[in-house]
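Hey L., structure's done. Input below.
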Amino acid sequence: IPEGVFKVADSQVASRWGNICEFQGFDLITPNEREARFALADQDSVVRPLARKLYDESKAKNLILKLGSRGLIAYRSVEDKDDVRSFFAVDSFVEHLKDAVGAGDALLSYASLAHIAGGHEVSASVLGAMAAAVECECDGNVPVTPKDVLTKINTMEQRARFVG
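Output:
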């Protein structure tokens, strides 16, 4: 891989055996919980220590661990690895689940683009989660457009401002 390229990796355990830890030192990795457990041979750890272990072993700069309906947990580079700000969680933005196929790809795509555009790790993760939610609310694996994501963001923003 050429120098200066933003390196992103995802793995696959559902249809074939893939180990996310094979992608050492990448800028962003986006496995789901099952893929993380497979890579680490860990069936017992709770999610936060599992994510931390995967983050450390992969030497990734950023990790987004997808947790399905529970959202995601992300780890990012900070000077002090024990700093509580080294990880954060983002809830799922899915309102009406129709089909989750393609949600991980949407998350990876939008989070990667946000990182490349100079976005912060938190905003990249939220944007990826928004794109994943859009995909989950569609029947089938369809392209998620920027307009779709903006609509989702506006909907969530309106709900956050609701005073009742």
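The chain has a mean pLDDT of 91. The first strand starts at residue 8 and ends at 9.

-- N.
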